[in-house]
Amino acid sequence: MRIDVATIFPGMFAGPLGLSIVARAQESRLLQLSVHDLRDHTSDRRRVVDDYPYGGGAGMVMKPEPFFRFVEHLVDTGAAGTLPGVARPHVVLMSPAGAVLDTSVARRLAGEPWLALLCGHYEGVDERVRQVLVDEELSIGDFVLTGGELPAMVVIDAVVRLLPGVLGSSCSLAEESFSGPLLEYPQYTRPADFRGHKVPEVLLSGDHAAVETWRRQQAARRTAAQRPELLERVRPPCGPDKHR
Fold it and tell me: What is the CATH number of domain 176-232?
C-alpha cells in the first residue's frame, strides 16, 4: 500500500509513524509512506497556503491551489513500477465535518492501493477542494482539533495494521474490540497473583472450551456495561413471533 500525506507541519509525523507497527510495515515494504510539505506546492515566493475568506468572518481559509498542485504532482510522478494500473490516489480530507472513522471504514481504506490524506488547518479549506478534488472526508470524532495531522496519523495507524502480513497473527485482528459486535474480553498475564489480585481460575485450568465460554461471557458483560449501544446493532428487529 502507498500513502501520501499533505501537511504544513511534516515534522509532526516522524515520531508516531517511525515506531512500532507502522515502522515495521515500512521496513518490510508492505507500506510506502511519504509525508509532503504542502508549502512545496505553492507558487509564490512566501509559500502562502491560506487567505482571508470571501464574505468576511474570523480566521483564515486554506487556499485550493496547493492541494490541487499536490495531487497533480502525485498523479504526474505516478505510481509506475510500484502500483501498476493505479493512476490516481483515493483522496481523503481530514475534517471534523467528515464521516467518523470506525473499523468498517478502516477495512475499506485498507483495500485501497493508494491513499492521499489532506490535512486542513485554520478555519478549514476552500470548498472547491471538497467539491472537485476529494473522494471522501473523514473525522475521528465529534470534536475540533487544531489541524488534520493527528487524525491523519490515527487513520494511518488504523488502516496499516489491517494490511495482510503487518500483524504477526491474524487472530489478533479477529479477537480484538470492534472486529465483531462485542468489545474484547479481559486479558491477563504473569504473575497469576499480583498483590492479592488473582487471575481468574478458569484461565489457569487448561480447559480450552471453558476458557472460550468465559471469554464470550466477559465480552458480553463488558460491552453491556461500557458500550451498550453496540448490542443494539445485533438485536433482531421486533416483529410477530413466527412460532405462535
Answer: 1.10.1270.20
CA distances from 201 to 205, 221, 222 (A): 6, 18, 19
Give the amino acid at 131: Q
Which CATH code of 2.60.40.10, 3.30.450.40, 3.30.1490.20, 3.40.1280.10 fits the domain covering 2-160? 3.40.1280.10
pLDDT tens readout for residues 166-222: 986 555 555 554 557 888 999 999 999 999 999 999 999 999 999 999 999 999 999
Q: Which of 5-19, 113-127, 162-176, 202-216 has the lowest mean pLDDT?
A: 162-176
Nearest to 223 by CA among 233, 213, 237, 238: 233
Cell triple for 200: 481468574
Cα 146 off chain centre by? 18
CB proximity list for 52: less than 8 A, separation 6 or greater = 60, 61
Q: Where are the domains of the chain?
A: 2-160, 176-232
Q: Are residues 129 and 94 in contact, defined by beta-carbon separation less than 8 angstroms?
A: no
Instruction: Write out pLDDT tens, residues 22-57.
Output: 999 999 999 999 999 999 999 999 999 999 999 998
